[in-house]
Amino acid sequence: MEIIVFSKAMYSTWLYYAPDRIMFDCGEGVSTFLTNKIYAVQRIFLSHGHADHISGLWGFLNTRNSAMGEREKPLEIYYHSSSSRIRKYLEFIVESSNRLRYDILVREIDEGFTLPLFPKEEGAPTRSALDRKAKKSRYLEAFSTKHMETECTLGFHIKETRKRLKEPYRSMSQSDIRKAIQSKGSEEISEYYDQNLFTYSGDGLVMPRSRMENTDTLFHECTFLDIDERKGENHTSLEELVEPVLAAKPKELYLYHISSRYTDSLRERIEKFERKMAENNVKVNVVPPGKICYF
Ligand SMILES: [Zn+2]
Ligand SMILES: [Zn+2]
């Protein structure tokens, strides 16, 4: 199990990404479902201040203070700097909670914010760190999404920086590569690139193709299955995902934030889309509204 997710549009959305102990959004019911797994969470990233993404925070912070577990473990919470709604809500929670036993680091962030996840070092990921540690490093990056005029909203990538041989050297034999390293040095014949291990779209319109490229696991919101059922330009519909996803080709696409109006007809309405994606080697997974899922 790497991901636990619950999502029902308008009611509640939260996703726990176990490899980096990060909770994305914190909708209602999160502590009830996770029970003492809430102690595993080190950081919470909130995509925006709508109630269905933050209403579980109060329960989460209080349960973590009193359930059976490591009650003194610090917690970090990140949200967009313009969200006065989240700021006020957090102030209220902390004020009205009976003395929290653990430290909460609250950090306001903006688009482009990055946070190194591995190796654990302060500041931006560095190449020296990358060289020392198995030629890989991992970081989180926040990006803007288009959801509401009145609200700045964020999505998140978890990226791995990797090192590989530059194009002309990839087809060479081992002995020729060794010679090239001796004459030019290994830095000269290699390059760094970023792979998106995981992308979380938050709420909003379909993300541009560039945000979906080189992605292993793409969680994209899909509130509506038919574009005609959408009122206003706030959320994504299934048919709008076809073109950018087929162009970007993530390894796996997860649809979440689905409206509960589709609970009974979901399977049959999504079948054609799934087939089309499968023909193009994109595996589709669905988070049915109201059902807790383990992936
Ligand atoms: Zn929502
Ligand atoms: Zn929203």
Folded structure, characterized:
- With 295 residues, the chain is α/β, with parallel strands linked by helices.
- The chain has a single domain, classed as Metallo-beta-lactamase, Chain A (4-Layer Sandwich), CATH 3.60.15.
- It is 29% helix and 32% strand.
- The protein contains 11 helices and 14 strands.
- The strands form 2 sheets. It has a 7-stranded mixed sheet. A 7-stranded mixed sheet has the order 7-8-9-10-11-12-13.
- Helix 4 links the parallel strand 5 and strand 6.
- The chain is globular and about 65 Å long.
- The model has no long low-confidence stretch (mean pLDDT 92).
- Bound molecules: zinc ion (ZN) (2 copies).
- One zinc ion (ZN) binds next to helix 2.
- The site of one zinc ion has 4 residues, from loops.
Please sum up the structure shown.
The chain is of the alpha/beta class and 295 residues long. Helices cover 29% and strands 32% of the residues.
Element layout with pairings:
Layout: E1 3-8, E2 12-17, E3 22-26, H1 30-34, E4 43-45, H2 51-54, H3 57-66, E5 75-80, H4 84-96, E6 104-109, E7 114-118, H5 127-132, E8 136-148, E9 151-165, H6 167-170, H7 174-184, H8 186-189, E10 190-200, H9 209-212, E11 215-221, H10 238-248, E12 252-256, H11 266-279, E13 283-286, E14 293-294
Parallel strand pairs: 3-4, 4-5, 5-6, 10-11, 11-12, 12-13
Antiparallel strand pairs: 1-2, 1-14, 2-3, 7-8, 8-9, 9-10
